[in-house]
Design goal:
single chain; alpha+beta; elongated; SH3 type barrels
Length: about 100
């Protein structure tokens, strides 16, 4: 997408992650042009953005009832699979790096 095609308030999508948002501002940094999206408040290079088609699926989810979430977490924590997994942990903290 070129700088001439962009306008403030335009809905665009970043196809690598599927992030969709409205352009809040356009800024030039070190010779590159970026657009800030309202959904993440992050800057995206304009050549990586595409116009959003129609109403995209919202990335925000409606939280479940708290009691249901707590109950499902308790069931998972008391399950045999999790208990077996904890038996195989040697209490070391390795960052893998």
């Amino acid at each position: 997408m070129s700088e001439e095609e962009l306008t403030l308030g335009m809905r665009v999508r970043y196809p690598r992650t599927g992030t969709t948002g409205t352009i809040l501002r356009i800024e030039q940094v070190r010779g590159e042009v970026f657009a800030e999206l309202d959904s993440t408040n992050l800057l995206y290079r304009i050549d990586t953005l595409i116009p959003a088609q129609g109403h995209e699926k919202s990335t925000k989810t409606v939280p479940e009832d708290a009691k249901k979430v707590i109950e499902s977490e308790r069931e998972f924590a008391s399950g045999r699979e999790l208990q077996d997994a904890w038996k195989n942990v040697d209490q070391s903290c390795e960052g893998g790096g």
